[in-house]
Amino acid sequence: MMASSYNAKDEDGHISVSGPGGGALRSKKPENTAFKQQRLPAWQPILTAGTVLPAFFIIGLIFIPIGIGLYVTSNNIKEFEIDYTGVDMSSPCFNCSQNFSWNSTRPCTCTIPFYLEQSYENNVFMYYGLSNFYQNHRRYVKSRDDSQLNGDVNSLQYPSKECEPYAYHDNKPIAPCGAIANSMFNDTLELFYHPNGTKVPVPLTATGIAWWADKHVKFRNPGENQNLTAVFQGTSKPVNWRRPVYELDYDPLNNGFINEDFIVWMRTAALPTFRKLYRIINKKDNMVPTLQRGNYTLEVVYNFPVRSFEGRKRMILSTISWMGGKNPFLGIAYITVGSVCFFLGVVLLLIHHKYGNRNNSADISN
Amino acid sequence: MLWSSLPGRLKTEKWMNVQVGDIIKLENDQFVTADLLLLSSSEPLNLVYVETAELDGETNLKVKQALTVTGEMGDNIDTLAPFNGEVRCEPPNNRLDKFKGTLTLDGQVYALDNDKVLLRGCTLRNTEWCFGLVIFGGPDTKLMQNSGKTTFKRTSIDHLMNVLVLCIFGFLVSMCTFMAVANSLWETSDGEVFTAFLPREDGINAPLSSFLSFWSYVIVLNTVVPISLYVSVEIIRLGNSFFIDWDRKMYYPKSDTPAQARTTTLNEELGQIKYIFSDKTGTLTQNIMTFNKCSINGKCYGELFDFSGHRVEITEKTEKVDFSWNRLADLKFSFHDHSLVETVREGNAAAQAFFRLLALCHTVMPEEKKEGELNYQAQSPDEGALVTAARNFGFVFRSRTPETITVVEMDKQVVYELLAVLDFNNVRKRMSVIVRSPEGKLTLYCKGADTIIYERLDPSCNKLMNVTTGHLNEYAGDGLRTLVLAYKDLDEDYMEDWKKRHYEACIAMDDREERLDELYEEIEKDLQLLGATAVEDKLQDGVPQTIEQLAKADIKIWVLTGDKQETAENIGYSCNMLREEMKGIFIVNANTAEGVKEELENARRTMCPDSPVEPNVIRSRAGLFWTQKTVNVPDEKVDGDYGLVINGHSLAFALEKNLQLELLRTACMCQTVICCRVTPLQKAQVVQLVKKYKQAVTLAIGDGANDVSMIKAAHIGVGISGQEGMQAVLSSDFSFAQFRYLQRLLLVHGRWSYLRMCKFLRYFFYKNFTFTLVHFWYAFFCGFSAQTVYDEWFITLYNLIYTALPILGMGIFDQDVNDRWSFQYPQLYSPGQLNLYFSKKAFVRCVMHSCYSSLILFFIPWAAIQDTVRDDGKDIADYQSFALLAQTCLLVVVNIQICLDTHYWTAVNQFFVWGSLAAYFAVTFTMYSNGMFFIFTSSFPFIGTARNSLSQPNMWLTIFLTALLCTLPVVAFRFILIQLRPTINDKVRSKFRKEVLPAAKPRRPPMRRISTRSGYAFSHSQGYGDLVTSKRFLLTRPLKSRPILFVKTDSALAENRPQHYRTIREEQEEVHRGP
Predict the structure, then answer these.
(1) DSSP string, B719-783
(2) What span, in angstroms and rounded, lies between the C-alpha atoms of B336 and B323?
(3) What number of other Cβ atoms are within 10 A of residue B343's Cβ?
(4) Are residues B736 and B745 in contact, defined by beta-carbon separation less than 8 angstroms?
(5) Which of helix, strand or coil describes residue B584?
(6) Is residue B129 within 8 Å of residue B1049, measured between CB atoms?
(7) Is B345 a residue whose pLDDT tops 90?
(8) From the list B199, B752, B879, which residue is nearest A269 (CB)?
(9) Residue B682: which of B665, B701, B707 has the closest Cα?
(10) pLDDT > 90? residue B989
(11) pTM for this entry
């Protein structure tokens, strides 16, 4: 090879060059910044046995206790569920479920007895559950007018086109408009306790069941503190409703658009099977359980038709914990994932012992 | 700019305005504008010297001579302007060495040949001015005819992306069709009975609804089609191009030229190069010849040894010999061995004879504009180097007339009588002069190829011959170009007789050549050996190291040069492409198709005796709609290294349809391929051949106009900038000043660009598919109604804000190992050549990964949210909370995924990743706030969702669980791969972590290699002997005396001289593009 004066070191970028005429006179030499020379300081993590294996074991060790905790918490929640759809001939609501019409004047009532095996401490929450009800259908979800629900007077008179075909009825705007509002759950559920053959109604609280933001921000009645009846003058009630929106409750703070049953319904469910909070049974004093062990009856004013689409209606009584209602899924998932992690860690450790050293010591063939 | 002389006077005109029939005046060192018929020149005999390095890579000056009849016009505008003749010639073609035509002038017909034509791309040298008539202009010029078509270059990843996007479209349509069918089923079974709650719009039944659902899903799922992909890809390429522009290690301080990415769309292909086609002159070499070593009377000079007797490497810092004692010395000449000067000055007879020979035996023309300022006009740089060496060692060639040569020998002027010049040609491979010294001694001085001279030596110098052979072998081993020098004292009587016979032969009508050859043969024998010279064709810095590195990266380098075979071979040896240890070097030199075929087949048989006769051709289809047919000739395995040298005329046959596969197979078996004497078009054809049958990415690198066609033909063209002539740079995709920067361009920038682009694409497809497929799963739970899982704002901002920057950060900053390690392990380059990082397979893997992630991302939140309520009993299983949960999970997962993919965590990457997450939460909380709801009630219906659901522990537990479930399998899989089948990257990365970079080995002086091949190479051509002895040359000289000419050119016209070359180059480009 020829005696060449080339030396790789000269190309390291720190040879000083003086442009023509000395000094750095408009030299085209690129700037020596870490960014331009791609020498930005950087952290270069790689997957080594030293980081991956402990990570797997630690994740395993953390997940399993969390999972057990979640599972136990979920299991400690007491839940009672009763299906009152009335599919079976033997079911007390069978008759009501058969003869259905949205606008029947005579409400059909059925009574379902049940027995609580455990007493329920603390506040008990009463939910109604629907199955096979597509509250998440695209056309259903968008069939509402948030401006109208927020008390916009203009939208009250001229509901959004999204509400079609429930925007106008008899040339009068519908308030609240849209398919969601129109199909509002309108069964009335009442609970009675039967200690020693007597019938004691269980006090149900109808407020405090909607989100604070919904109740105070998203939903507002039109007109500032006016008489609701006057405000809604000139509007029509939703087609399927029996009463207009301003007659949903006697309490002015729970009437009209800010009726909490209405608000809860308007928060559409993500999945076709869902439950919605209906009433709260508040704990009265510390000595007596909220719901004692014993016989109860559920009295249903059966209005809401679900048989036509093979839907189901349920009533659920449940206590809650710090992680909400009963859902064992998270607990089980955490336990499973933790165990799998631990197991994978062992497998990876074995693989690393058997093959890893061999490959790491092997030099890179040139 | 140039002077066009119509009508009647000279005016400066742009190149683009030159038309056929114009008469053009060119001045010294200007580029020839168009193909010109030479009319007249400032030089005696209407000669013009041109340099054709831009055209064919040859460095010697060539002579063109005008017809006497036109030459008489001189620079007289009054006669030139009305010049009225008719030129008939062949149509425009691409043969650089042929021209046929006639000039009809006043009824007389004159034959025109290649000697009378100046081709575009040449440079005028040593000629004050000349006039020419434009024969071919613009695209008709031979240079342009050779330059090949400009094609729009796209990278293979671009093509693949097009195919993939098409596949994705198909995938989208099939998903939507599935959805439409499912929707119609749902509408007939469930939707029909659900109409009580959700009435259908008027006139919409199940089939129509399914049709509408198809289009709704096209809208919902269109995010699989990566529209923003193309924008991001271009941004990343642009960024990587800027890094090339900014690289200080590709900046050449001597000419103040930084590297330049002239095309910003080809970066990642730089990481996939399999074949490099390189020009020689100006690319591998500097185009400078230096007198490096010599052997005089059995003693070798020119090497330095330290005290222990080891060879010392000569660098720029080595002390130079002081030539100040010689007032005529050329100051640019440098030599490092002091002993030679001492020897010469001591009066060593052999050394003096050696340099006297060098001062006498040549065809160089001296030019002495000022007393003592000598300038040599050498026809070849080798000769210039030798005469300059003699000059500096005290034997200054001062001037010549046809009959005398004046030499200043050690400050003493001596005039030799020149009796004969026995000219050089390619068969004789030697030249001699016969001179009579002032003392009356007759001597023949001869220099030539060692093999030729050795046959003609007197037996008495056998011993010296053996010693000199040893030196010659060393020089050849070093890749130096050698010549052997010998002399012979002649007898007066014999000379008298020989001269007579020589004269007879010269005027003989037939067999003149043969008779002259015989006479030369007769007198050039029984020579006395003087020694040998070794001239270095200076390689550019670092060329052998670069070639070695690139070879380690499994890149094949072919040298395509217009130069002679010997010179090309010589360079092959000096830059380590051809090596003595090679098992064989095949030279294909045949002049017939059969001969070429036989030679190629023989070569193949030798390398691989059991290779099949018929090539193994794999045909397949590729491209958009699979319309392109591709042919692939797989590599064949060969033991050992071989080299192939193929000559231009053989290459012409080999490139014919029936032989090209044979050529390709044989050439690809060889480690090194050198094609010499090739035309620009052949260069392009070779590149296209490899492109077509190897399906490999090719790169062509060159500096001159003759390389333009190959630069355009290759996937990537690289121009060497910072030298005269911009043709190559203008048509190139990347340019820099030195060949050695190629390794940085490929092994660092190319590799990183490819890596970044592939990682980017893989991640991009992953994130979009994951995003979209969640909608697909949700469809099963919402009656296939095209309900989206996420908030529409999230859908809008996902690609735009939430995930745009981290991926760009990775695409611009990521590197697996830094540049020094990339150089340390050139093998890191090979995954790119094999297309490992991104292919259809990788894409499918990517989609499967997305499927898995999207399943997790949908079903874990789905299961977690079922019947879930808040810790105050209010339900959060509503659609809005679910949407928020799903989109938060998605964003966390794709961000973790990019963390896993990023290898190089700069502060910017950190900022982008954390910033994106922070931006997501900030934007989400803002959009879901009361204020936004009051302002745009219907646009932000998600009010309160973030507050209500993200305050719940089980939401966060769900997010954590999905993130882990998406990440863990990836980590485990990658870890297992590293353990079981580590890639070269994994190995280097783990080494990089554990060890510091091994210090660069101290560069030992290269090992001495002894070669038995002849190191002879001499870029000289015939015809100059006649010229310097021409009587007319003597007669015409006083007629056109230079001082007068100088006055003329320094007049008004000279003031209009172009200031610099830049304008010319820019105009050249316009001519390229112009009609």
Answers:
(1) EE-SSS--HHHHT-SEEES-TTHHHIIIIIIIHHHHHHHHHHHHHHHHHHHHHHHHHHHHHTTTT
(2) 11
(3) 20
(4) yes
(5) strand
(6) yes
(7) no
(8) B879
(9) B707
(10) no
(11) 0.84
- Nearest partner of B563 among B57, B53, B55, B63, judged by Cα: B57
For residues B859 and B781, is the Cβ–Cβ distance under 8 A? Answer: no
List the pLDDT tens digit at each of the 366 positions of chain A: 333 334 444 444 444 444 344 444 568 888 888 888 988 888 888 888 888 999 999 999 999 999 999 999 999 999 999 998 888 888 888 888 776 666 566 778 889 999 999 888 888 999 999 998 999 998 899 899 988 998 888 888 899 888 888 888 888 999 889 999 999 998 899 999 988 888 899 999 988 899 988 998 899 888 877 788 888 888 888 988 888 888 888 888 888 899 999 999 999 999 999 999 999 998 887 778 888 888 999 999 888 888 888 889 999 999 988 888 888 999 999 999 999 999 999 999 999 888 876 655 455 654
For residue B281, say whether it is annotated as part of any ligand binding site.
yes
| ipTM for the whole complex | 0.92
Residue type, B1015: G
Nearest-CA distance B327 → chain A (Å): 29
Sequence-distant (≥ 6) Cβ neighbours of residue B462 within 8 angstroms: none
- What share of chain B in percent tops pLDDT 70? 92
Cis omega (within 30 of 0) on the bond before A45? no
C-beta of residue B582 within 8 angstroms of C-beta of residue B645: no
For every residue of B1060-1071, DSSP letters joined together read -SHHHHHHHHHH
Tokens (6 digits) for B901? 């993919």
For residue B548, give Cα distances in angstroms to A159, B265, B454, B830: 78, 28, 35, 15
The Cα of A268 is separated from the nearest Cα of chain B by a number of Å equal to 5
Calculate helix-pair angle for B907-927, B804-813, nearest 10 degrees. 170
Tokens in use for B531?
Answer: 């020694």
Chain A residues closer than 8 Å to B867 by CB:
129, 274-275, 325-327
pLDDT tens profile B739-787:
999 999 999 999 999 999 999 999 999 999 999 999 999 999 988 988 9
- B146 alpha-carbon distance from chain centroid: 17
Give B-chain residues touching A264 at CB under 8 angstroms: 875
Per-residue pLDDT tens over the stretch B497-550: 998 888 888 887 778 888 888 888 888 888 999 999 998 888 888 898 999 899
Q: Do A179 and B199 touch (CB under 8 A)?
A: yes
For residue B409, give the 3-state DSSP assignment: strand
CA distance B64 to B418: 25
Burial of B466 (0-12, 13-18, 19+ CB in 10 A): exposed
Contact A267 B882 (CB under 8 A): no
Q: Is B202 annotated as a binding residue?
A: no
On whether the CB atoms of residues B534 and B293 are closer than 8 A, the answer is: yes
Distance CA B649, CA B582 (A): 25
> B968 vs A59: CB contact, 8 Å cut-off?
yes
Q: Are B677 and B647 in contact (CB under 8 A)?
A: yes
B146 or A77: which leads in pLDDT: A77
Instruction: Calculate the CA B319 to chain-centre distance.
Output: 35
What's the CA gap between A177 and A149, in Å, rounded? 9
| Phi/psi at B56 (5° precision) | -125, 0
Is residue A305 within 8 Å of A68, Cβ to Cβ? no
Query: Does B915 count as an annotated binding residue?
Result: no
Residue B794, SS3? helix
- State CA A136 to chain mean position distance: 12
Question: Is-contact B124 B48, C-beta < 8 A?
Answer: yes
